[in-house]
User: Which sequence fits this backbone?
C-alpha cells in the first residue's frame, strides 16, 4: 500500500445574489500550501475550505477528508455549521 497524505482546497464562489457555489477541489503538496491557497481563494471568490485526507493511490482509495481551515464565507457560522468536520 502506498498511503499518502493529501492536502486540498474546495473554493466557494459567492455570486451577485449572495448565493454560494462550490467549485472543484484542488490538491496541494503541503498543509501550508493548501491553507495559503484557501485564504487567497476566499479573498477572490468569497470562501474556501482547506482539508487533509489519506489516499492509497495504488488501490484507488481515498479516505474521508478532515477540515483543517475555513476562510471567508465558509468561516462564518451558518445553519449547517454544526456538521462541519468532514470534507471531500
Assistant:
Amino acid at each position: 500500500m502506498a498511503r499518502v497524505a493529501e492536502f486540498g482546497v474546495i473554493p466557494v464562489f459567492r455570486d451577485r445574489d449572495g448565493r454560494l457555489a462550490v467549485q472543484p477541489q484542488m490538491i496541494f503538496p503541503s498543509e501550508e500550501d493548501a491553507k495559503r491557497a484557501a485564504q487567497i481563494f476566499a479573498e477572490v471568490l468569497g470562501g474556501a475550505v482547506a482539508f487533509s485526507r489519506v489516499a492509497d493511490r495504488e488501490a484507488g482509495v481515498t479516505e474521508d477528508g478532515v477540515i483543517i481551515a475555513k476562510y471567508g464565507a465558509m468561516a462564518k457560522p451558518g445553519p449547517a455549521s454544526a456538521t462541519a468536520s468532514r470534507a471531500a
In short: The chain is about 15% helix and 45% strand. The chain has one domain: 3-79.
